[in-house]
Amino acid sequence: MSKFDQLFEELNKHLDSTNQNWLFGAGISYQSNIPLMIPMTKKIEEDLLQDNTTTFLSIKEFLPVDSHIEHYLSHIGDLIALIERSNKHELTINNVTYNYYSLVTLYNEIISLIGDLVRYGYKESEKIQGNINWPIVEIKYHKAFVRTLFNRRSNLENITNINFFTTNYDTLLEDALALEKKLVIDGFTGGSMGFWNPKVFNTSYQASTFKLFKLHGSIDWHKDDENGLIRCRYGTKYLSDNSNLLIYPQATKYIETQKDPFAFLFNKFRESLNIERDNVLVTCGYSFGDNHINNEIEMSMSLPDNKTNLLIFIKESWIEAEDKTTLPEILIKWLDDSNFRNRVFVMSDQGLYNESSNIEKEQGENTYDWWTFEGLTNLLD
């Protein structure tokens, strides 16, 4: 048996583990017409510049040319914090004066634009944007994944612990689970209008009940002055400010994750990795660009009695200057870490890695599609 076949067989055994944690990033929703960070940034820039927003223009000129929407929001958040601590209600930088109202208005407008793009969809290649009367977001890929995952595990479902973690703001995963007759526990009590009640995560439920942790918030989470954190149907007028979505796409996410509900959600992520029995964390669509999440994984994997195996599905980045592809630096580091490298499996478009940066391939194969959400679903099938 070849080295690739041995690793592939071991990979399949881990995919049948009775303790599974799935971590999803923006990549799993790309085929569903929810834009990735760069095209989302370009679209929001176009919309804001069309309105000729002076405040946004000054911020855009101040930041590096390769900045994306997370950097914009982070910078605006920093400016608002500085103004709140000053004895004036304005701040002057590089001869540009910012006031609290204009910054808050711009921040809320960007959050609202993100919400619409995620809620209704956007196809950059065709410059097509969905709207409330014509949404273009597809759910078929998420439904196919859920159906395939549980068909594969039909004999184990009643005795299996499966947790879902996601950094995405969209509701496709919970919607797909519900459409496949799975009860979703997301930290809220109620129906389509729910209130934050983290105790529900600690309650024992019947079979076909699965926990979903949205680490960076959601387009249907609202921070209401009177009612606190609410999961709300879009378009209602019950709340004090319908634009106050509780999503934190800033580059400085670490600060926000020290507050509830994010502190609680990250603690649950930590708990799911810090166990002393066979356990897996499977990632797909996540590019390892969030240092806070990466640090949580690394700290957990480094514990002496930890038995978690990492199964990472990812596309390698092209380095034009070196005429080659490469993995994120953090994954290269983990594959070389003597403390846990034997428990790291990386399935890229180029092949399979384990214990080192030496790649294994099937004979005659050039590239693989298992790094995509659809390709991972096919692999499970």
In words, what does this structure look like?
- The strands form five sheets. The chain has a nine-stranded mixed beta sheet with strand order 7-10-6-1-14-15-18-19-20, with helices on both faces.
- A hairpin with a 3-residue loop joins strand 8 and strand 9.
- The protein contains twelve helices and 20 strands.
- Helix 6 crosses helix 7 (172-179).
- 36% of the residues lie in helices and 22% in strands.
- It has helices at residues 3-15, 37-50, 54-62, 69-85, 100-120, 140-152, 172-179, 253-256, 262-273, 291-301, 329-335, 373-380, and strands at residues 19-24, 90-93, 96-99, 122-123, 128-129, 161-166, 183-185, 188-190, 194-196, 209-214, 217-224, 228-231, 245-247, 279-284, 308-314, 317-319, 324-326, 344-348, 352-354, 359-360.
- It folds into two domains: 3-31 and 138-242 and 252-380, Rossmann fold, CATH 3.40.50.1220; 37-129, no CATH class.
- The longest helix is centred in the first third of the chain and has 21 residues, at 100-120.
- It is an alpha/beta fold and 381 residues long.
- The model has no long low-confidence stretch (mean pLDDT 87).
